[in-house]
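Progress note, project year one: complex with CU-O-CU linkage.
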Amino acid sequence: RFSFFCPLQLREINVTRNCTTITILVVNDSLPGPTIRARKGDLVYVKVHNQGPYGVTLHWHGVKQPRNPWSDGPEYITQCAIPPGTNFTYEVKLTDEEGTVWWHAHNEWTRSTVYGAIVVLPRKGSNFPFSTPDGEHLILLGSWYKEGTFLNKALEMDLSAGGYTVPRATGYMINGQYGDFVPCSNETTPHFSVDYGKTYLFRIVNAVVGSEMFVSIADHNMTLVGIDGAYTKPIVVSYLMIEPGQTMDVLVTANQSPGRYYLAAQRFSTENIEFTKFVHEVATAIIQYKGNFSLTSPPSYPNDTLPYYHDYGAAASFTQQLRSLASEEHPVDVPGNVTTRMFITVSMNHVPCPDDSCDYGDYKIASTLNNISWEDPSVDVLQAYYRNISGVYTMDFPDLPPVMYNFTGDDLSTSLADAAQGTSVKVLNYNETVEIVFQGTNLLDQSEYHPMHMHGYSFYVIGVGFGNFDNETDPQMYNLVDPPKVNTFGIPKRGWAAIRFRANNPGVWYWHCHIDRHMSWGMDTAFIVKNGDTEETSMRPPPSYMPPCITSKDKPYS
Ligand code: C2O
Ligand code: CU
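Model obtained:
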């Protein structure tokens, strides 16, 4: 086993984009932060030096961290924030994942500027399950908030105001840049150079805080070969739909007439139109053929393969094609006999307004899983579980919503949207086989995609559909042969998705929507997976130092 050390320094710097300079928290003075390159099986010690003005945590999105939730990172779930002026070392152990995963901050909305890629190459002596590409390019999709890292405070204000003033991205970026078509931006448009006739692996990370994205390259097809650090059956596509949190690896052959072509990334919006107020919708980069052709010829634009931003059909037909590679070397292991079955509604709800400043009068907006809006505890769940601290969480997360109704119907009664609030977790025995059907709802007329993300695991998506899940007919359509294996999957607007996993990673693992405003509004829970009988099937003990729990929301650093 190979291990190495990677220092990350967090501090605030001034960054200018779109003609405006703001102060943001970044890693190693760059946006996005540095890429961690490793091989499957490596162990990376990441030492985080927090030189910023407030507490932060980092999370290794897609890294399963077997038996070691202590290094997983989400604030109030597995740790408290690393106080300013202090260090914390994460152990990032790459075991099962291969391809592209990523890292990001995991407290409040700090991940909008604190993120980077993790490239996991095959073990030494192993190869990709496709011909070795001639080159590689990394694409991190990000969002820009012209208000900067004020986000914690803005969000607090927003929550007390009832929800709707929640900060919205000013626009989207590729590798920290807007690209052409945005004022003051075309000098820094990212360029990816290619040689005619060669094939490149593009590793794409959707680090956007709140949107699904469509991605396409003018005149070029892409061959999808991996998602979320797992290989897929190759599919040839003209665009991608990538959920926030997901990563996709695609092969692109430079086989068009040598020139310049736009790679464009655009929001896929599934919200009701009245909530959409974005400024710059499209981020661009240029794929540039090397060689002797006129550089003055403008690239072709727009990409006619980039779907319209409200094109649900394009999104659905893309995700329906996803399959695991399911080869001898990369087998599929969908758990059979299910021991725990859950049916979880993912929903927009409301809860009583704490004061008199809410948009809905007596209510403020909330998001829920099974009608419970998650409340962050003051001590992380992992510590409370390990040390038997009572009163931090309850173990009553329900396997079913409290009432059954026509989830995806129109004109649902507003009283159905009354949500409970709490820190309610689900407990699983070691090695249970779990099936979850996530059911989207149309409560408050606010159905949209919800990219549900699980920490500590990847899961198989064995079924997806629109409307209400049908217990009789839908399970008959499950794909148990080569379903895609992901850590994040979009529950479609007014639809459902069924997933399975084996609970073989003991610890405390966060489950949440990867759209940060939904996560902040409560679309979260945690699964406690109990220890097995042996040491190898039990959680590791905590490291000698964990950051103290003093960064509670009520006592922020000033
Ligand atoms: Cu990408 Cu809980 O995170
Ligand atoms: Cu959501």
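The pocket of CU-O-CU linkage (ligand 1) is lined by residues 59, 61, 74, 104, 106, 245, 453, 455, 510, 512, 514 (CB under 6 Å).
The chain has three domains: 1-126, 127-330, 340-537.
No further modelling is planned for this target in the current period.
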